[in-house]
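Working notes for the structural subgroup meeting. M.R. asked for a predicted model of this chain before we commit to crystallization trials. I am recording the input and output together here so anyone reviewing the notebook later can reproduce the run.

Input as submitted:
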Amino acid sequence: MAENAHLFYDIRLDGFFPDTHDDEHGPSAVLNFQTEITEWRHTLVGGKDGYIRWYSKYADTDDGVAITSYVLLPPMRLAGDEFQDGMLMELIATIPERSGDVDWEVRVGHTHEEVATASAFTSGSWTTEGLQHTERVQARGGSATVKLSNGQNLKWAYEQIIGVVRPVGRTTVD
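Returned structure, recorded in token form:
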């Protein structure tokens, strides 16, 4: 099945987010439906196939098709300024109850802009709820970010991620 990519504007977060649909499920019309009955409030999406759908935080699939999702956490400086490198030594995460597996990857680079498109330096999965085992990352750079995604194409969440960093010296340019 062909896919179409779209941008979804979230009013609450005041930002655009990428969204993909199978070609037939892709939006031909969208309506933010508001009513006094809270359970009926939805963003309605009219599909090319004639069906009206809405986004649900409770759904694991879209008409039987797995839903993939991810979040790219804001980049962080690993040392005091742009002229110093730091090392992300460890990641420590807490995963809530009833969450699906959470895949993670660490991206590093000289700048915040670089890490947004960088390849994964290292990656792994958190497959149990609660406090996770410490991940020894050892990623050197000026900036780093963590990308989280649903490992089993199920609903997922994270409570917190702590990064342990230390400065390691002047930035080196390749």
